[in-house]
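Re: that chain you flagged

S.,

Sorry for the slow reply, it's been a week of failed gels. I finally had a moment to sit down with the sequence you sent. For the record, here it is as I used it:
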Amino acid sequence: MSRFYIIFFLLFLSTVTFAQQELKKYLEFAQEKFIEGDYVYALQYYEKAMKIDSNTINTLWEYAETLRAYKDYPKAAFYYGKVYGREGAEIYPASLLQYGLMLKQTGQYDKALDVFKLGKKKYRNDRRGYLYKKSRAEIESCVWAKANQGDSSKLVFQSLPEHINTPNAEFGHRIHNNQLVFSSLRADSISTSEEVYDLSYHTNLYVSKINEDQFDTEKRIEELAFENAHTGNGSFSLDGKRFYFSYCADSGQNYKCKILVAYVEGEQFVDVDTLGTIINTENSNTTMPFIGKWENSEVLFYVSDREGGSGGMDLWYSFVKNGNQYQKPINIRALNTIDNELSPFWDSKTQTLFFSSSWYDGFGGQDVFKSKYNTAFEDPENMMEPINSPANDLYYFQTSSSDSAFFSSNRIGSNYSKNPTCCSDIFSVRKPLIDLPPTIEETLEELNSRLPVTLYFHNDVPNPRSTDTVSNVNYLDSYNDYIAMTDEYKKKYSDGLKGEKSDDAKDDIEDFFTEFVKQGVQDLNQFIELLQIELEKGRKIELTVKGFASPLAKNDYNVNLTKRRIASMVNYLNAYDNGFFSKYLNKSAENGGVLIIVQIPFGEDQSDKIVSDNPNDQKNSVYSRAAASERKIEIQSVSIDAD
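Prediction finished late last night. Pasting the structure tokens below so you have them in one place:
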């Protein structure tokens, strides 16, 4: 080897060695900052590392994790996708799930749905594990989000002024004595235009007086500002003499919080004390207190990951006696899930608990839900847009008059300096001062935007082996019977298959019932809620309903069958809401409103020709997804008579 090549080789080796040393230094420093919760600084060093080596799977994973923590959803989705593409969730099992979650939080519901389906398949060897359960839940959530996207209410939605909402993070908590109480991550020593994530800056409580709907300059509550700790989540007692708040010590990327109480003297907060271990259980994270009135008693709602919960952060409550005695906390099991439930707000007037969750059907990460208490907490109801979004929406609360509400969100449109979804702002919603009724054209457009509404049936249902064109069956009963057959369908369709092919067939059927059969009833109920509003105005409305059948029976039989299926939907309408639609269907409504159903039964004429019509092959002619997809009726169009 010549001297030239030896020198060249030594120089090359020296450069590589130096680069590897630099890479190691960058990665170690980035990981250190990530653990501390300083995501901005961590990203800077991961990006330096990526310039040296952008192919190592560990570096890609750590970079994606930091982007997720920083709430940069598009970039996080891209890099989780790269990780999964390289290692197939073998090295980092959560890579596929996180890829789907980040897609969902950018509003890409179709792509996210495909990823979650793949996740359900990937994780099904551990059906009791979180990754499998979460993937299944997110499939339903994406189907729901697709169906409800764009259904914004008429609420007036606006961001609070910029002196409240800085480029950092703000979280609203309460309005008390005409003052907004909120938390903010900010520092006195920096410009308000700088985005802060370094944990040398702390979240503190602030108040801003409200004068004629204008927010005065905010003031930090100095008595509740502590060195090397974060404070937030303020809530006053019913008599206003005590103030509960969260005190969170620095613990890297995960705070360790407990609830403290301060006594109120005028505008001062004095005698700060911690609640006892009955609330602040040792080695637990306890935070987000809210004081309300329930059953003529003072009650403390809060969240905690203490033992005895369902998983993650759970909703708890404890009745308070004499201002300082706390009864045994009760876990709200009807609402808590294996994910996080956060930021409770109790409306004593309506006996309704508002909270945020990342588990139930929603648009993004954390969505705001409500649950009315009526001897027990009812199923959670999503608060919909514009309160919820693909991002994280939390800290919902209403004013005492209930004419407006506030919440915090890191959605697109929040104030920021670098990453559009890095930091939360406080938003308000209220009813419009003048609520103009929609025109017929606007109403028709809204109704048609809900179509088609598709309802599915089991084979030869309703009224099997009948040539009747009418039926007494209520579609809801038919639907419930059909859903109860899910396991039978999975068993019959996977019959004769083994291993992965059997599991694929079962998943295929399960996805059909989730995406189409169940969603059909939800779509129908949303559609007829709009119909109710218009019929109450005396409108004459015409629905065109088409019926389809699989090719198992002869065409004339199937034509009669599809007529019976349409009749079952009409029976459902007649029974809905104590017979609300009956007077419109039989043209006896005093306001002149009429609902006309135009039937177009196709039988098997338009069924897919590849669907089996062999009665001896029920696996494919009855229980296959292809055959099940043909047995349906569709509300395909709606028209309104302007007269």
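What I noticed first: The mean pLDDT is 89.

Talk soon,
D.
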